[in-house]
Automatic annotation (TrEMBL):
One of its GO terms (biological process) is adenylate cyclase-modulating G protein-coupled receptor signaling pathway. It comes from Panaeolus cyanescens. One of its GO terms (cellular component) is cytoplasm. PANTHER family: GTP-BINDING PROTEIN ALPHA SUBUNIT, GUANINE NUCLEOTIDE-BINDING PROTEIN SUBUNIT ALPHA HOMOLOG. GO terms for molecular function: G protein-coupled receptor binding; G-protein beta/gamma-subunit complex binding; GTP binding; GTPase activity; metal ion binding. GTP binds at residues 383-386. It comes from the Eukaryota. Keywords: GTP-binding, Magnesium, Metal-binding, Nucleotide-binding, Transducer. Mg(2+) binds at residue 290. InterPro entries: Gprotein_alpha_su, GproteinA_insert, P-loop_NTPase. This is G-alpha-domain-containing protein. SUPFAM superfamilies: P-loop containing nucleoside triphosphate hydrolases, Transducin (alpha subunit), insertion domain.
């Protein structure tokens, strides 16, 4: 067929012309679709424009990477940064943390239920006694309470879904409970208690945004319903937690839940109140694991009335995710390295043959000797000193876990020795003359951490200005 082109007819107009014999209803539908398409295209244009402006603006921002093994306190440090420097965003997110805190709470309860149920199963039967058993065995009352708490399993699952993620390590716990193994399993159990988590590919900011969105409308009713179930179980939860048999069972498995991340059982009355609003302390204690690399933007108000853009990168600390850190090494101004000192008697959840503090020392050496980081300022946070102090007060001996340690077991001696080891590695592997900057921290203490972060911010800026040749 020969295609003839008639100059009088605009081919595009012919192409976009309404179909012949269009009914008024069809026309209405067509026009609505056209409008929607125009709006979509405008939105895309606006987003691209905003992204371009933002890229230009954030190109010169101070960039700080926070590194360390999983559970070292990286995300918690960034939360503190937000408390100190981005109050508005912090306040907006406050309510959304409720879902995470509720999840943490329910997870702990389910863990206790599993452990007590396991003790019941192992002993073959519950004691004949109805509520108190002199031999410390679970009683029929325990059995009833466990049954009444069964709906919390579903609530935990729903909250995980609600928080937009799959779960990890939890199944391993039940496997461990099946075996009757000795001490190494107890250690592993402890690691798992610490490792409960919601995996997220998008970081807590976007999870919270999602939670916020769902706090209106039907989703909000679902969330309220979940919360109502927990409220209805409150008395049984409190009873189970305060019960001496439960405490004995937990002790026999070396499960120290009070110090585990995301522990909220002692706050149950407050948390389940209708008008509960998470406090700063609740939020920094809430546990949500990071996967991938997350970027957090802050604009700091400075005393001279100017603003300063600041980007913090939060990364996943587990071993398998560490390769993802490397691309960030080139573009950062500073690196905060988190070393959780209290982990001296723990093992890695991802490889339970490895002592967590030894893993931190190895990681620290790798960071200090990295060529890619030779231009970067490194700041060490020796974190979780509150937990270190507690463990030493309980008489846990450092030398039992760190063979080279041959000094006293008091906090001052132990912490000074740890600092010396970090410093020695730093001096041996960094450029001569590089300043060793370190802080003892407990980043769940928001007031003290606020002060540390002010000092850190000043140090980073001073170094940045010096590097730019302005000082
Ligand atoms: N007691 C105490 N708890 C802390 C401290 N720092 C962090 N935590 C808690 O430890 C848990 C883990 O902290 P996160 O900040 O989530 O750890 P992370 O390094 O981001 O871990 P990943 O995201 O898995 O890499 C949280 O429940 C925190 O509240 C501390 O100094 N003292
Ligand atoms: Mg994290």
């Amino acid at each position: 067929m020969i295609f003839t082109y008639d100059k009088e007819v605009d081919p595009l107009a012919a192409f976009t012309a309404p179909p012949p014999n269009e009914t008024p209803e069809e026309r209405q539908i067509r026009e609505r679709k056209e409008q929607e398409a125009i709006q979509r295209s405008r939105n895309i244009e606006a987003e691209l424009k905003a992204a371009k402006i933002s890229m230009k603006r954030w190109k010169d921002a101070v960039k700080v990477l926070v590194l360390g093994q999983s559970m070292s306190g990286k995300s918690t440090t960034i939360k503190n940064f937000q408390i100190t420097y981005a109050q508005k965003a912090w306040a907006e997110e406050r309510q959304s943390w409720k879902a995470v805190i509720l999840f943490n709470l329910v997870h702990t309860v389910n863990l206790i239920v599993d452990v007590v149920q396991d003790a019941v199963d192992r002993s073959g039967r519950t004691s004949e006694h109805t509520s108190v058993d002199v031999a410390g065995r679970p009683t029929q009352h325990h059995h009833k309470v466990l049954l009444r708490l069964a709906p919390l399993r579903r609530i935990e699952d729903d909250l995980k879904t609600h928080l937009g993620a799959g779960t990890s390590e939890v199944e391993i716990l039940s496997k461990n409970l099946e075996s009757n193994g000795p001490s190494h399993e107890v250690e592993l159990n402890r690691a798992i208690v610490q490792e409960f988590t919601v995996r997220s590919s998008s970081g807590w900011k976007s999870i919270l945004a999602q939670v916020r969105k769902s706090q209106s409308g039907r989703e909000s009713q679902i969330h309220q319903a979940l919360s109502d179930v927990v409220v209805s179980c409150k008395d049984d939860i409190r009873w189970l937690w305060n019960d001496s048999v439960t405490q004995l069972i937990l002790q026999s498995r070396s499960l120290k839940l009070d110090d585990a991340p995301g522990f909220f059982l002692n706050d149950i009355d407050r948390i389940t109140m209708h008008d509960y609003e998470p406090t700063d302390s609740d939020i920094v204690r809430a546990r949500l694991r990071t996967t991938g690399v997350q970027e957090y933007h802050f604009t700091l108000d400075r005393a001279n009335g100017t603003n300063l853009d600041w980007i913090m990168y939060d990364v996943a600390g587990i071993r398998t995710s560490r390769a993802a850190w490397i691309p960030y090494f080139r573009e950062i101004t500073a690196l905060i390295f988190m070393a959780p000192l209290s982990s001296f008697n723990e093992r890695l959840a991802e490889d339970n043959r490895v002592n967590r503090l030894e893993d931190t020392f190895v990681l620290w050496k790798t960071i200090c000797s990295s060529e890619l980081l030779s231009h970067v300022q490194i700041i060490l946070f020796m974190n979780k000193v509150d937990l270190l102090r507690k463990k030493l007060d309980q008489g846990i001996q450092v030398k039992k876990y760190i063979p080279e340690y041959d000094k006293g077991n008091d906090f001052a001696t132990v912490s000074t020795w740890f600092r010396r080891v970090f410093k020695r590695i730093f001096v041996d592997h960094r450029k001569p003359g590089s300043p060793f900057i370190s802080h003892f921290t407990s980043v769940v203490d928001t007031q003290a951490t606020g002060q540390t972060l002010q000092a850190v911010q000043a140090t980073i800026l001073r170094n940045d200005i010096a590097n730019a040749g302005l000082m």
